[in-house]
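Researcher: Structure prediction, please.
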Amino acid sequence: MTKLISGATVVPVDAERSVIRDGAVAVADDGRIADVGKRAVLEQAYPDAERIDARGQMLLPGFVNLHVHCALAVTRGIGDDMGGAPVYRKDIPQGVILGPDDTYVFSRLGALQALAFGSTTIVENYIHSLSNVKALAELGIRAVVSERVHDADLFTVRGGEYSYDPDLGKRLLETNAQLIEEWHGYDGGRITCQVGPHGPDTASPRLLEQAALLAEGRGVGMFIHLAQTAGEVAQVRRLTGRNSVQHLDDLGLLGRGLIAGHCAFLEDGDAELLATSGTNVCQIPVVNAKSGWIAPAAQLRRLGAVVGLATDNMVHDMVEAMRFALCVNRVADGGPAGIKAMDVLEMATIQGARAIGREADLGSIEPGKIADLVFVDLERPHLAPLLDPVANLVYAGQSSDIHSVMVNGEFLVRDRAVLTVDTKEVMAAAQERAESLWRSVAGWEPADRAVCGQC
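Model: Predicted structure follows.
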Protein backbone atom coordinates (compact mmCIF):
# COMPACT_ATOMS: atom_id res chain seq x y z
CA MET A 1 0.00 0.00 0.00
CA THR A 2 1.16 3.54 -0.76
CA LYS A 3 2.22 5.51 2.32
CA LEU A 4 1.34 9.20 2.50
CA ILE A 5 3.57 11.24 4.81
CA SER A 6 1.31 14.18 5.46
CA GLY A 7 1.59 17.64 7.01
CA ALA A 8 5.39 17.95 7.15
CA THR A 9 7.56 20.86 6.16
CA VAL A 10 9.19 19.12 3.20
CA VAL A 11 12.70 20.19 2.17
CA PRO A 12 13.36 18.21 -1.03
CA VAL A 13 16.93 19.54 -1.56
CA ASP A 14 16.07 19.91 -5.23
CA ALA A 15 17.59 22.26 -7.78
CA GLU A 16 15.10 24.99 -6.84
CA ARG A 17 15.91 24.70 -3.13
CA SER A 18 12.20 24.37 -2.45
CA VAL A 19 10.61 24.40 1.00
CA ILE A 20 7.05 23.03 1.04
CA ARG A 21 5.15 23.99 4.17
CA ASP A 22 2.18 21.75 5.00
CA GLY A 23 3.57 19.35 2.44
CA ALA A 24 3.26 15.65 1.76
CA VAL A 25 5.25 12.82 0.19
CA ALA A 26 3.71 9.68 -1.29
CA VAL A 27 5.86 6.54 -1.02
CA ALA A 28 4.97 3.61 -3.28
CA ASP A 29 5.08 0.02 -2.09
CA ASP A 30 8.41 -0.49 -3.92
CA GLY A 31 10.03 1.98 -1.52
CA ARG A 32 10.33 4.79 -4.04
CA ILE A 33 8.87 8.27 -3.93
CA ALA A 34 5.72 8.52 -6.01
CA ASP A 35 4.80 12.17 -5.49
CA VAL A 36 5.80 15.33 -3.61
CA GLY A 37 3.62 18.40 -3.05
CA LYS A 38 1.12 20.18 -0.86
CA ARG A 39 -0.76 18.09 1.68
CA ALA A 40 -4.25 19.01 0.42
CA VAL A 41 -3.39 18.03 -3.15
CA LEU A 42 -1.76 14.70 -2.30
CA GLU A 43 -4.42 13.69 0.22
CA GLN A 44 -6.97 14.09 -2.54
CA ALA A 45 -4.81 12.23 -5.04
CA TYR A 46 -4.10 9.28 -2.68
CA PRO A 47 -7.32 8.80 -0.67
CA ASP A 48 -6.61 5.14 0.13
CA ALA A 49 -2.98 5.57 1.18
CA GLU A 50 -1.74 4.68 4.65
CA ARG A 51 -1.50 8.05 6.41
CA ILE A 52 1.60 8.97 8.41
CA ASP A 53 0.99 12.15 10.38
CA ALA A 54 4.11 14.33 10.16
CA ARG A 55 2.69 17.62 11.37
CA GLY A 56 5.26 19.54 13.39
CA GLN A 57 8.11 17.78 11.60
CA MET A 58 10.53 18.59 8.79
CA LEU A 59 11.12 15.92 6.17
CA LEU A 60 14.63 15.74 4.67
CA PRO A 61 16.50 13.35 2.41
CA GLY A 62 18.56 10.89 4.41
CA PHE A 63 22.08 12.05 5.18
CA VAL A 64 24.89 10.48 3.14
CA ASN A 65 27.83 10.18 5.54
CA LEU A 66 30.81 9.81 3.23
CA HIS A 67 33.42 8.39 5.59
CA VAL A 68 33.01 6.42 8.81
CA HIS A 69 34.89 3.83 10.81
CA CYS A 70 31.99 2.37 12.80
CA ALA A 71 34.17 0.12 14.94
CA LEU A 72 36.22 3.06 16.22
CA ALA A 73 33.41 3.69 18.66
CA VAL A 74 35.78 1.74 20.92
CA THR A 75 38.01 4.83 21.23
CA ARG A 76 35.27 7.17 22.45
CA GLY A 77 36.02 9.17 25.58
CA ILE A 78 39.64 8.07 25.94
CA GLY A 79 41.26 8.04 22.51
CA ASP A 80 40.10 11.56 21.61
CA ASP A 81 42.35 13.30 24.15
CA MET A 82 45.45 11.41 23.06
CA GLY A 83 45.84 13.47 19.88
CA GLY A 84 46.28 12.41 16.27
CA ALA A 85 44.58 9.67 14.34
CA PRO A 86 44.05 6.51 16.43
CA VAL A 87 45.13 4.32 13.51
CA TYR A 88 48.80 5.08 14.27
CA ARG A 89 48.81 4.17 17.99
CA LYS A 90 49.57 0.83 19.63
CA ASP A 91 48.19 1.98 22.98
CA ILE A 92 44.62 2.21 21.69
CA PRO A 93 42.53 -0.93 21.04
CA GLN A 94 41.91 -0.50 17.33
CA GLY A 95 42.92 -1.89 13.96
CA VAL A 96 44.85 -5.15 14.02
CA ILE A 97 44.54 -5.22 17.83
CA LEU A 98 40.83 -5.94 17.31
CA GLY A 99 39.60 -9.32 16.15
CA PRO A 100 36.72 -9.86 13.71
CA ASP A 101 34.25 -10.34 16.58
CA ASP A 102 35.39 -7.08 18.16
CA THR A 103 34.83 -5.12 14.99
CA TYR A 104 31.39 -6.69 14.61
CA VAL A 105 30.38 -5.62 18.14
CA PHE A 106 31.59 -2.04 17.72
CA SER A 107 30.34 -1.72 14.14
CA ARG A 108 26.83 -2.48 15.38
CA LEU A 109 27.16 0.37 17.88
CA GLY A 110 28.64 2.80 15.36
CA ALA A 111 26.04 2.01 12.71
CA LEU A 112 23.23 2.28 15.26
CA GLN A 113 24.42 5.78 16.17
CA ALA A 114 24.69 6.81 12.52
CA LEU A 115 21.20 5.54 11.74
CA ALA A 116 19.60 7.11 14.82
CA PHE A 117 21.18 10.45 13.88
CA GLY A 118 19.79 10.37 10.35
CA SER A 119 22.54 8.86 8.21
CA THR A 120 20.65 6.54 5.90
CA THR A 121 23.82 5.89 3.87
CA ILE A 122 27.35 5.50 5.23
CA VAL A 123 30.66 4.89 3.48
CA GLU A 124 32.44 2.46 5.80
CA ASN A 125 36.16 1.68 5.56
CA TYR A 126 37.94 -0.42 8.19
CA ILE A 127 39.81 -3.58 8.95
CA HIS A 128 37.88 -6.91 9.15
CA SER A 129 35.36 -5.61 6.61
CA LEU A 130 33.77 -9.04 6.27
CA SER A 131 32.66 -8.70 9.91
CA ASN A 132 31.77 -5.01 9.66
CA VAL A 133 29.47 -5.58 6.71
CA LYS A 134 27.43 -8.18 8.60
CA ALA A 135 26.71 -5.65 11.33
CA LEU A 136 25.66 -3.01 8.80
CA ALA A 137 23.44 -5.45 6.95
CA GLU A 138 21.64 -6.37 10.18
CA LEU A 139 20.98 -2.72 11.10
CA GLY A 140 19.24 -2.09 7.78
CA ILE A 141 21.34 0.96 6.99
CA ARG A 142 22.50 1.61 3.43
CA ALA A 143 26.28 1.24 3.19
CA VAL A 144 29.23 1.37 0.83
CA VAL A 145 31.91 -0.84 2.38
CA SER A 146 35.62 -1.39 1.79
CA GLU A 147 38.60 -3.00 3.50
CA ARG A 148 41.38 -0.78 4.88
CA VAL A 149 44.14 -1.69 2.41
CA HIS A 150 47.77 -0.75 3.10
CA ASP A 151 51.22 -2.28 3.00
CA ALA A 152 52.92 0.10 5.45
CA ASP A 153 53.29 -0.78 9.12
CA LEU A 154 50.84 1.79 10.51
CA PHE A 155 52.27 1.67 14.02
CA THR A 156 55.64 3.09 12.92
CA VAL A 157 54.15 5.93 10.89
CA ARG A 158 53.53 8.14 13.92
CA GLY A 159 57.29 8.26 14.47
CA GLY A 160 57.94 9.11 10.84
CA GLU A 161 59.16 5.61 9.91
CA TYR A 162 57.64 3.87 6.89
CA SER A 163 58.28 0.20 6.18
CA TYR A 164 56.32 -1.61 3.47
CA ASP A 165 55.35 -5.28 3.37
CA PRO A 166 54.05 -6.45 -0.05
CA ASP A 167 52.53 -9.61 1.50
CA LEU A 168 50.44 -7.51 3.88
CA GLY A 169 49.13 -5.40 1.00
CA LYS A 170 48.32 -8.51 -1.01
CA ARG A 171 46.36 -10.10 1.86
CA LEU A 172 44.30 -6.99 2.51
CA LEU A 173 43.58 -6.46 -1.18
CA GLU A 174 42.43 -10.09 -1.43
CA THR A 175 40.08 -9.49 1.51
CA ASN A 176 38.69 -6.44 -0.27
CA ALA A 177 38.15 -8.55 -3.38
CA GLN A 178 36.35 -11.22 -1.33
CA LEU A 179 34.16 -8.51 0.22
CA ILE A 180 33.13 -7.30 -3.24
CA GLU A 181 32.49 -10.84 -4.44
CA GLU A 182 30.27 -11.76 -1.49
CA TRP A 183 28.47 -8.51 -0.67
CA HIS A 184 28.37 -6.07 -3.58
CA GLY A 185 24.70 -5.57 -4.48
CA TYR A 186 23.33 -7.30 -1.36
CA ASP A 187 19.64 -6.71 -0.58
CA GLY A 188 18.81 -5.03 -3.85
CA GLY A 189 21.86 -2.80 -3.70
CA ARG A 190 21.44 -1.62 -0.11
CA ILE A 191 24.99 -2.87 0.51
CA THR A 192 27.56 -2.06 -2.14
CA CYS A 193 31.33 -2.22 -2.01
CA GLN A 194 34.38 -0.32 -3.17
CA VAL A 195 38.16 -0.56 -2.81
CA GLY A 196 39.74 1.23 0.14
CA PRO A 197 43.46 2.01 -0.06
CA HIS A 198 44.24 3.76 3.21
CA GLY A 199 46.39 6.61 1.93
CA PRO A 200 49.06 7.53 -0.63
CA ASP A 201 51.72 7.22 2.06
CA THR A 202 50.55 3.99 3.70
CA ALA A 203 49.82 2.25 0.39
CA SER A 204 52.88 2.02 -1.82
CA PRO A 205 52.66 3.14 -5.46
CA ARG A 206 52.51 -0.48 -6.55
CA LEU A 207 49.67 -1.27 -4.15
CA LEU A 208 47.74 1.81 -5.30
CA GLU A 209 48.03 0.61 -8.88
CA GLN A 210 46.78 -2.85 -7.88
CA ALA A 211 43.87 -1.32 -5.97
CA ALA A 212 42.91 0.73 -9.01
CA LEU A 213 43.01 -2.37 -11.20
CA LEU A 214 40.75 -4.24 -8.75
CA ALA A 215 38.26 -1.37 -8.70
CA GLU A 216 38.23 -1.11 -12.48
CA GLY A 217 37.90 -4.86 -12.92
CA ARG A 218 34.97 -5.12 -10.52
CA GLY A 219 33.30 -1.91 -11.69
CA VAL A 220 33.38 -0.23 -8.28
CA GLY A 221 34.71 3.03 -6.87
CA MET A 222 37.50 3.77 -4.43
CA PHE A 223 37.97 5.62 -1.14
CA ILE A 224 41.26 7.04 0.13
CA HIS A 225 42.48 9.35 2.89
CA LEU A 226 44.17 12.18 0.97
CA ALA A 227 46.30 15.06 2.26
CA GLN A 228 45.18 14.03 5.73
CA THR A 229 48.38 15.09 7.51
CA ALA A 230 51.54 17.04 6.78
CA GLY A 231 53.50 13.83 7.45
CA GLU A 232 51.61 12.02 4.72
CA VAL A 233 52.39 14.69 2.14
CA ALA A 234 56.06 14.72 3.17
CA GLN A 235 56.34 10.91 2.87
CA VAL A 236 54.75 10.89 -0.58
CA ARG A 237 57.20 13.56 -1.69
CA ARG A 238 60.09 11.48 -0.37
CA LEU A 239 58.82 8.45 -2.29
CA THR A 240 57.85 10.10 -5.55
CA GLY A 241 59.06 13.68 -5.68
CA ARG A 242 55.42 14.78 -5.92
CA ASN A 243 52.81 15.75 -3.36
CA SER A 244 49.87 13.50 -2.50
CA VAL A 245 47.36 14.89 -5.00
CA GLN A 246 49.90 15.05 -7.81
CA HIS A 247 50.96 11.47 -7.06
CA LEU A 248 47.41 10.14 -7.40
CA ASP A 249 47.02 12.11 -10.60
CA ASP A 250 50.22 10.58 -11.97
CA LEU A 251 48.83 7.11 -11.21
CA GLY A 252 45.49 7.91 -12.85
CA LEU A 253 43.54 7.53 -9.61
CA LEU A 254 41.89 10.94 -9.52
CA GLY A 255 38.43 11.14 -11.08
CA ARG A 256 34.72 10.59 -10.69
CA GLY A 257 35.12 7.13 -9.12
CA LEU A 258 37.30 8.31 -6.21
CA ILE A 259 36.20 9.72 -2.85
CA ALA A 260 39.07 11.62 -1.21
CA GLY A 261 38.69 12.06 2.53
CA HIS A 262 40.05 14.97 4.60
CA CYS A 263 42.04 17.00 2.00
CA ALA A 264 43.24 19.30 4.80
CA PHE A 265 46.82 19.73 3.57
CA LEU A 266 46.36 20.74 -0.03
CA GLU A 267 49.10 22.70 -1.75
CA ASP A 268 49.00 25.24 -4.56
CA GLY A 269 47.13 23.84 -7.56
CA ASP A 270 45.76 20.81 -5.72
CA ALA A 271 42.22 22.15 -5.37
CA GLU A 272 42.07 22.92 -9.09
CA LEU A 273 43.37 19.44 -9.90
CA LEU A 274 40.77 17.76 -7.71
CA ALA A 275 37.96 19.85 -9.18
CA THR A 276 38.90 19.49 -12.84
CA SER A 277 39.45 15.73 -12.47
CA GLY A 278 35.97 15.28 -11.00
CA THR A 279 37.32 13.75 -7.80
CA ASN A 280 34.78 13.69 -4.97
CA VAL A 281 36.02 15.46 -1.85
CA CYS A 282 34.84 14.44 1.59
CA GLN A 283 35.15 17.17 4.20
CA ILE A 284 35.39 15.85 7.76
CA PRO A 285 35.07 19.10 9.68
CA VAL A 286 34.79 17.91 13.30
CA VAL A 287 37.74 15.51 13.22
CA ASN A 288 39.93 17.99 11.35
CA ALA A 289 38.99 20.85 13.68
CA LYS A 290 39.77 18.65 16.70
CA SER A 291 43.31 18.35 15.33
CA GLY A 292 43.51 22.03 14.38
CA TRP A 293 43.07 21.60 10.62
CA ILE A 294 40.61 22.97 8.07
CA ALA A 295 40.10 21.59 4.58
CA PRO A 296 39.60 24.31 1.93
CA ALA A 297 36.09 23.13 1.11
CA ALA A 298 34.80 26.61 0.30
CA GLN A 299 37.48 27.00 -2.36
CA LEU A 300 36.77 23.52 -3.74
CA ARG A 301 33.06 24.28 -3.97
CA ARG A 302 33.75 27.51 -5.88
CA LEU A 303 35.86 25.52 -8.32
CA GLY A 304 32.94 23.17 -8.94
CA ALA A 305 34.13 20.12 -7.03
CA VAL A 306 31.65 17.71 -5.49
CA VAL A 307 32.14 18.19 -1.74
CA GLY A 308 30.28 16.03 0.77
CA LEU A 309 30.42 15.59 4.54
CA ALA A 310 31.41 12.87 6.97
CA THR A 311 32.00 12.17 10.64
CA ASP A 312 34.94 9.72 10.48
CA ASN A 313 35.53 8.17 13.92
CA MET A 314 33.54 10.73 15.92
CA VAL A 315 29.91 10.36 17.04
CA HIS A 316 28.10 10.09 13.71
CA ASP A 317 26.18 13.33 14.10
CA MET A 318 25.62 14.94 10.71
CA VAL A 319 23.76 17.90 12.23
CA GLU A 320 26.95 18.71 14.13
CA ALA A 321 29.00 18.08 10.97
CA MET A 322 26.90 20.55 9.00
CA ARG A 323 27.29 23.25 11.64
CA PHE A 324 31.05 22.66 11.94
CA ALA A 325 31.42 22.71 8.15
CA LEU A 326 29.63 26.02 7.93
CA CYS A 327 31.69 27.56 10.72
CA VAL A 328 35.17 26.33 9.73
CA ASN A 329 34.60 27.14 6.07
CA ARG A 330 33.67 30.69 7.03
CA VAL A 331 36.82 30.95 9.12
CA ALA A 332 38.92 29.67 6.22
CA ASP A 333 37.11 31.89 3.73
CA GLY A 334 37.28 35.05 5.84
CA GLY A 335 33.56 35.61 6.15
CA PRO A 336 30.01 34.27 5.78
CA ALA A 337 29.31 35.14 2.15
CA GLY A 338 30.56 31.93 0.57
CA ILE A 339 28.53 29.29 2.39
CA LYS A 340 25.01 29.20 3.83
CA ALA A 341 22.83 26.73 5.70
CA MET A 342 21.31 25.23 2.56
CA ASP A 343 24.80 24.72 1.13
CA VAL A 344 25.86 22.44 3.97
CA LEU A 345 22.54 20.58 3.84
CA GLU A 346 23.26 19.88 0.18
CA MET A 347 26.74 18.69 1.15
CA ALA A 348 25.16 16.27 3.63
CA THR A 349 22.62 14.90 1.13
CA ILE A 350 22.68 15.34 -2.65
CA GLN A 351 26.41 16.01 -2.85
CA GLY A 352 27.09 12.85 -0.88
CA ALA A 353 24.80 10.94 -3.22
CA ARG A 354 26.77 12.29 -6.19
CA ALA A 355 30.02 11.24 -4.57
CA ILE A 356 28.91 7.60 -4.41
CA GLY A 357 27.39 7.73 -7.91
CA ARG A 358 23.81 7.42 -6.64
CA GLU A 359 22.36 10.87 -7.31
CA ALA A 360 19.71 9.31 -9.58
CA ASP A 361 18.36 7.33 -6.60
CA LEU A 362 19.33 9.18 -3.43
CA GLY A 363 20.06 12.58 -1.92
CA SER A 364 16.82 14.45 -2.58
CA ILE A 365 13.06 13.99 -2.21
CA GLU A 366 11.87 13.72 -5.79
CA PRO A 367 9.56 11.32 -7.66
CA GLY A 368 11.32 8.12 -8.68
CA LYS A 369 14.01 8.31 -6.02
CA ILE A 370 14.33 5.86 -3.12
CA ALA A 371 12.51 6.95 0.02
CA ASP A 372 15.47 7.30 2.38
CA LEU A 373 14.00 9.98 4.61
CA VAL A 374 14.70 11.79 7.88
CA PHE A 375 11.96 13.24 10.08
CA VAL A 376 13.08 16.17 12.25
CA ASP A 377 10.99 17.22 15.25
CA LEU A 378 10.48 20.98 14.88
CA GLU A 379 8.42 21.38 18.03
CA ARG A 380 11.45 21.93 20.26
CA PRO A 381 12.19 25.08 22.27
CA HIS A 382 15.61 25.60 20.72
CA LEU A 383 14.09 25.55 17.22
CA ALA A 384 11.55 28.30 17.95
CA PRO A 385 10.64 30.68 16.46
CA LEU A 386 10.51 28.75 13.19
CA LEU A 387 11.13 31.14 10.33
CA ASP A 388 13.70 29.32 8.17
CA PRO A 389 13.58 25.61 9.08
CA VAL A 390 16.84 24.72 7.32
CA ALA A 391 18.77 27.53 9.02
CA ASN A 392 17.23 26.58 12.37
CA LEU A 393 18.41 23.00 11.96
CA VAL A 394 21.95 23.91 10.91
CA TYR A 395 22.52 26.70 13.43
CA ALA A 396 20.47 25.45 16.39
CA GLY A 397 19.55 21.82 15.75
CA GLN A 398 20.66 18.78 17.72
CA SER A 399 20.93 15.14 16.79
CA SER A 400 18.18 14.44 19.32
CA ASP A 401 15.81 16.35 17.04
CA ILE A 402 15.90 13.37 14.63
CA HIS A 403 12.51 11.79 15.29
CA SER A 404 12.26 8.98 12.72
CA VAL A 405 14.26 7.55 9.83
CA MET A 406 13.17 5.60 6.74
CA VAL A 407 15.32 3.47 4.44
CA ASN A 408 13.68 2.07 1.31
CA GLY A 409 10.38 3.52 2.49
CA GLU A 410 10.38 1.53 5.74
CA PHE A 411 10.87 2.90 9.24
CA LEU A 412 14.14 1.82 10.82
CA VAL A 413 13.88 4.51 13.51
CA ARG A 414 10.46 5.54 14.87
CA ASP A 415 9.94 8.11 17.59
CA ARG A 416 13.70 8.02 18.33
CA ALA A 417 13.78 4.23 18.81
CA VAL A 418 15.88 2.05 16.48
CA LEU A 419 13.62 -0.82 15.41
CA THR A 420 16.07 -3.28 13.84
CA VAL A 421 18.19 -4.18 16.89
CA ASP A 422 17.93 -4.14 20.66
CA THR A 423 19.72 -0.87 21.46
CA LYS A 424 20.40 -1.77 25.09
CA GLU A 425 21.89 -5.12 24.10
CA VAL A 426 24.15 -3.47 21.49
CA MET A 427 25.34 -0.91 24.04
CA ALA A 428 25.90 -3.51 26.77
CA ALA A 429 27.93 -5.75 24.48
CA ALA A 430 30.08 -2.81 23.38
CA GLN A 431 30.60 -1.64 26.98
CA GLU A 432 31.76 -5.05 28.14
CA ARG A 433 34.05 -5.53 25.14
CA ALA A 434 35.50 -2.01 25.42
CA GLU A 435 36.37 -2.34 29.11
CA SER A 436 38.12 -5.65 28.47
CA LEU A 437 40.09 -4.32 25.50
CA TRP A 438 41.17 -1.08 27.15
CA ARG A 439 42.35 -2.97 30.24
CA SER A 440 44.38 -5.45 28.21
CA VAL A 441 45.86 -2.93 25.76
CA ALA A 442 46.32 0.21 27.86
CA GLY A 443 45.95 -0.84 31.48
CA TRP A 444 42.83 1.31 31.77
CA GLU A 445 40.70 1.26 34.90
CA PRO A 446 37.24 2.84 35.35
CA ALA A 447 37.31 6.55 36.19
CA ASP A 448 35.22 6.13 39.33
CA ARG A 449 37.80 3.79 40.80
CA ALA A 450 40.60 6.29 40.14
CA VAL A 451 38.61 9.16 41.64
CA CYS A 452 37.69 7.16 44.75
CA GLY A 453 41.33 6.29 45.22
CA GLN A 454 42.11 9.98 45.59
CA CYS A 455 39.37 10.64 48.16
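Model: The radius of gyration is 22 Å.
Researcher: Thanks, that helps.
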